[in-house]
Amino acid sequence: MRPIVDYHMHTPLCGHAAGEPELYARRAQELGLLEIGFSDHAPLLSHDDPSITMNMSQLPEYHKMIEDVRNEFQGELIVKIALEADYLSGYEEKTRAMLSGYPYDYVIGSVHYIQDWGFDNPAEQAKWAKSDPNVIYRKYYELLRKSAETRLFNIMGHVDLVKKFGHRPSEDMTDEIRKTAYVFEQAGVAVEINTSGLRKPVKEMYPALEALKIYCQAGVPLTFGSDAHMPEDVGRDFFEAADLAKAAGYKEYVLFKQRKIEKTVKL
Ligand code: ZN
Ligand code: FE
Ligand code: FE
Questions:
Q1: pLDDT band at residue 177, thresholds of 50, 70 and 90?
Q2: What's the DSSP call for residue 68?
Q3: Nearest to 31 by CA among 2, 9, 51, 8
Q4: Which residues pair with 9 in a beta bridge?
Q5: How far is it, in rounded angstroms, from Cα 39 to Cα 184?
Q6: In angstroms, what is the span from residue 111 Cα to ligand 1's centroid?
Q7: Does the pLDDT at position 256 exceed 90?
Q8: Quick one: pLDDT band at residue 87, thresholds 50, 70, 90?
Q9: How far from the centroid of its chain's Cα atoms is residue 143's Cα?
Q10: Is a pLDDT exceeding 90 seen at residue 42?
Q11: How many A from CA of 15 to the centre of ligand 1?
Q12: Is 253 exposed, middle or buried, given 0-12, 13-18 or 19+ CB atoms closer than 10 A?
């Protein structure tokens, strides 16, 4: 069975996605999904970069755009309104203020930066050649834990994004992942299966099976997201995503409404 929901989708406002939100909703309907959630990149609070996120002054336009789609599809497809926000050390209170400015259904917390290095940005890939993957992976997991501990987020996004370009640690990261799973459970955040990794050099979903087993054992709830940056990618590889969830031990996944778990759905 395919999950009935896709909670990770972008809009052209982020500067690197294509297609109006209505087209994402139509694609979801074609696939038979019952619910979607738009979670475009939240404004970066450290600096403006129109190729990565909308800016603060565009947030009202984003809300209106998604509300319009929600109204248009009323009775046919449930449309949730969310954001994918970065955890940036030192910007916690600004982030909190931004996220409290609108009744989002959920917020995905994502780590895309280690200090000021956008480690998953193809334009900043050269720095990997000068880095020890063991060190980078450990820093990444530490930032994931710090993100969850802020209690700013409901879902942690693509929780092994650090593997995106195929760089692998030589050391075993199981303990890092165990610690991270424990913190997630304590903080009450969910993890997502994000299928976009299959479309990246690593060619694996985020997270890998062995990691997902650890999150499942720790009691961390699950959601599904395609991380679509174009309508054709909505719900992509969701049958495989459901298989991965089951192989990891998950029996159900969760839906969010107004920043709380609304219900669970059997896998
Ligand atoms: Zn993006
Ligand atoms: Fe992301
Ligand atoms: Fe994303």
A1: very high
A2: H
A3: 2
A4: 228
A5: 20
A6: 12
A7: yes
A8: confident
A9: 15
A10: yes
A11: 8
A12: buried
Is the whole-model pTM more than 0.90? yes
Ligand 2 centre to CA of 157 (Å) is 6
| Ligand with an atom nearest the CA of residue 18 | 1
What is the pairing mode between strands 35-41 and 260-266? Answer: unpaired
Centre of ligand 1 from the C-alpha of residue 9, in Å: 9
C-alpha 7 to ligand 3 mean position (Å) = 10
pLDDT tens-digit map of 122-143? 999 999 999 999 999 999 999 9
Under a CB-based contact definition with an 8 Å cutoff, are residues 221 and 228 in contact? no
pLDDT at 89 over 90: no
Distance CA 175, CA 179 (A): 6
Distances (CA, A) of 218 to 37, 178, 211, 241: 26, 8, 11, 19
List the domain boundaries for the chain.
Answer: 5-266
> CATH fold of 5-266, please?
TIM Barrel (3.20.20)
- Which ligand ends up closest to the CA of 120? 2
